[in-house]
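Record 1 of the preview.
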Amino acid sequence: MDKANVVKMMDTLEMVGFIKTNGTACRFVSLVCKTPVVKIKASNPFGQVIKGGKVQGECQLFKVASKIGIINANYNTSVRNRIAEKLGVTLSEVEYENGEVWFKHVQTADGKNLPLVVNKDESKAGYYVQYFPHKSTHKYVNAAGEVIPDEIVKPHLYKESERPDFKPCTIAINLANICQFKASGVVIEMPDFEEAAAILAD
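->
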């Protein structure tokens, strides 16, 4: 990609600004993330101590991932489309009300939802980008950056809860964990991107 399209950023607020200007159109995005692993059993051998869903002390295990997904897709419409297809009826015949969620969307000046979300609990700061996952690859690494094979990590992870097949998967990634964000021909790179890219390239 043309280097002129690569923008180096230093903090998440700069990324917030970019995502806001990127708008509300449905589009593919690409992300590279380094996320602390917190959903892990207490008996894990990686030194993780989890209390109240949070890592106590220095995190010892991370998931470095390259992801492709879609932002600004309408969740309610996606669910209704799946139900309509399953039942063999038209979209207009399907009604569906979204369930309760932990987040709320940041909106444009004219009230349209952006792919940025924040916690409804205002004591929990931070921005997240919400997207519909398409495909991803990942590696687990310890605090020293050493790769830990999936087969060693997986027995210590909690089983993912099952989701009804008419509900599409959505993911909200904390912007603090995003190393690179590609959208609309622009590449945003954070200071830790090169380290994450090297892990994925090995």
